[in-house]
Amino acid sequence: MRVAVLTDSTAYLPPALAQEHGVRVVPLYVVLAGRSGREGEDISAEDVARALSTRGQRVSTSRPTPGDFLAAYRAALDAGADRLVSVHLSAELSGTWDAARVAASQVGEHIVSVVDSRSAAMGTGFAVLEAATAAARGADREAVALAARETAARTRTLFVVDTLEHLRRGGRIGSAAAVLGSALAVKPVLHVLDGKVVPLEKVRTSARALSRLVQHVVDTAGDGPVSLAVHHLAAPERANRLVAELRERVPALRELHVSELGAAIGAHVGPGAVGVVVSPHAGAPADEVGDQPTR
After folding, report:
1. pLDDT of 292 higher than 90
2. Alpha-carbon distance 280 to 101, whole Å?
3. Tens digits of residue pLDDT in 47-94
4. Hey, CA dihedral for 197, 203, 206, 209, is it positive or negative?
5. Which UniProt key words apply to this protein (predicted)?
6. First and final CA of the chain: distance in angstroms?
7. How far is it, in rounded angstroms, from Cα 110 to Cα 85?
8. The pLDDT of residue 295
9. Domain 3-152 has CATH 3.40.50.10170
10. Residue 38 pairs with which residues in a beta bridge?
């Protein structure tokens, strides 16, 4: 049986990689200036960064509909797939996983496995790529889904934002943490833990936050083989500095992807955000990776 792998647009897979691995991508919706559009198709990261930098402009996001997923699932089956594995953004951060589950129930849960990555951005993307690689090797649906879950479980997503206000407005971080950051001018290093965005370390300056971000990445990567992804929103210079430092300090770096965050996650982190996703390869010691349960 041929297994096809699908994901949503917040995985931020480089388009060439998605095409190479045959991964179908279902976009989230972004609302700004009174109009709703699909992430990456109708509304770009640049649109969101510009709106968030303009006083009074509000940006919101919404999940794909079950109908969007149903159409993608049927298209994959019509193209020759027998089984599907659908890997998505943390259910703690979005209703995307729920929408995919509703669509899967209409197709048949013996045909579609829906995986909650408990992560975001390339924290989801690396799980998708591992699933697609397993599928290309002829693995069955259960094995492909397991490859996604295991990769997601050993992957960590860390990031720094200029302000916590966008995360607070979108309900992605607690009000107390956001108020603390604003009142005390704290620049926390954040990470995704158990599918939620939580502070990892609180520091006083942006420069210190970036330095600590790099150190956490280096500590997580350890000496074993690892893949990294660097994300940013309207902060290419910061991203390039991170890339240069990580190439120098991570000894067994196998691959490094760089991409700008899309509109859906960009709306919640704001311009200036930078992040790194660390995905140790299978066999890395357990104490080098985060403990993130998956669905």
Report:
1. no
2. 28
3. 988 888 886 678 888 999 999 999 999 999 999 999 999 999 999 999
4. negative
5. Lipid-binding
6. 23
7. 11
8. 43
9. yes
10. 29
Q: Which residues on neighbouring strands pair with residue 60, listed in sequence order?
A: 31
DSSP per-residue string spanning the chain: --EEEEEEGGG---HHHHHHTT-EEEPPEEEETTEEEEBTTTB-HHHHHHHHTSTT--EEEEPPPHHHHHHHHHHHHHTT-SEEEEEES-TTT-SHHHHHHHHHHHH-TTTEEEEE-SS-THHHHHHHHHHHHHHHTT--HHHHHHHHHHHHHT-EEEEE-S-SHHHHHTTSS-HHHHHHHHHTT-EEEEEEETTEEEEEEEESSHHHHHHHHHHHHHHHHTTS-EEEEEEESS-HHHHHHHHHHHHHH-TTEEEEEEEE--HHHHHHH-TT-EEEEEEEPTT--GGGS------
* Length of the chain (residues): 295
User: CA quadruple 155, 130, 230, 196: dihedral positive or negative?
Assistant: negative
Query: Where are the chain's structural domains?
Result: 3-152, 156-288
CATH 1.10.10.60 is held by the domain 156-288: no
What is the rounded distance in angstroms from the CA atom of residue 242 to the CA atom of residue 253? Answer: 14
Contact, 124 vs 117, CB < 8 A? yes
Q: Which residue has better confidence, 79 or 284?
A: 79
pLDDT bracket for residue 230 (50, 70, 90): very high
User: Whose CA is closest to 130, among 146, 118, 115?
Assistant: 146
